[in-house]
């Protein structure tokens, strides 16, 4: 198990800054995900760790060893690419054995290791099949076996599930996670899919514009988004602009339009936010943080149902309240489902309001 450290790593392509001053320390054995929209710099960061790109500045360490300018084949990393990059005319065995032949291992050793890798990815006995005779999901497993067979210290996965259909993607996601836990291998995973990142990762680095927006566990990222971008990129959220009206020891009151005031906890305010009276702030409230506000006095928003979607597990509402369009998700209890045009009151607990900006 190897730690991976990036120190002030940047990558410039002519005029474009692909990655801007990234600092991370990935723990030995950790499942660490780079998450962000297209063009945010996640693949470029992964490629610098793999050695396909060298940084324009900064250093990359594996353990204590400086790897910044070490070529890819000398890094002890196994990589799975989005398109798998398998040799279509060769057999499964030949594909998986490729890296071992390059490393000039003996024939019996190659045989043993390839068989073990195919067992690990649950493709035992498939060695003689040709790649073009396999399904997409099976090809994905061969790519994973090929990365693992060299017994790398670090496994790098670049959107490995994006070519699979939804059901297979979920199955394969669990498989990869199981294998990673079994092998205890330090794993760096790139995806733009927040659900995938949340389900698999020990920690996530959210990126945008080449920069780190937040690093944290899935729970931290979801429940305590560092800023507006993270709050809206991870899951759904309501962002409400308001003005700080009162600040006490524990609480803050924000006027979010008209007479509507919301009271939150100071412990849910991001440290960089200025809480001076009259300051403009942005609140984040998740749809599932709302509940029925009938009979409640504090933190209740009155509105009208614009859309009502019944999903079985929940009822999802789009609610208009003054200038605000809000999304609310109520767990389906089988009663009192509101339809379009009906009045609704949404209540939110103080500890479910986050001041993100
Ligand atoms: P995607 O999910 O679409 O692959 P990404 O988050 O992985 O996106 P990167 O591929 O890392 O993003 O790209 C980051 C930025 O660097 C983008 O603006 C991209 O256009 C630019 N970039 C990446 N590779 C190159 C290159 N070889 N030459 C020039 N610009 C590049």
Structural summary, described in words:
By secondary structure, the chain is an alpha+beta fold. The protein has two domains: 4-229, P-loop containing nucleotide triphosphate hydrolases (Rossmann fold, 3-Layer(aba) Sandwich); 237-355, OB fold (Dihydrolipoamide Acetyltransferase, E2P) (Beta Barrel), CATH 2.40.50.140. It has helices spanning 42-50, 92-102, 107-120, 136-148, 166-183, 194-200, 218-223, 228-233, and strands spanning 4-13, 16-26, 31-35, 57-62, 65-66, 77-80, 154-158, 186-191, 203-208, 211-216, 238-247, 251-255, 261-265, 280-285, 290-292, 300-310, 314-321, 324-331, 343-348, 354-355. It has a six-stranded mixed beta sheet with strand order 6-7-8-3-9-10, sandwiched between helices. A hairpin with a 3-residue loop joins strand 11 (238-247) and strand 12 (251-255). Helix 2 packs across helix 3. The protein is elongated, with a radius of gyration of 25 Å. The two termini are 38 Å apart. The structure holds adenosine-5'-triphosphate (ATP). The site of adenosine-5'-triphosphate has 12 residues, from strand 2 and helix 1. The site of adenosine-5'-triphosphate (ATP) has 12 residues, from strand 2 and helix 1.
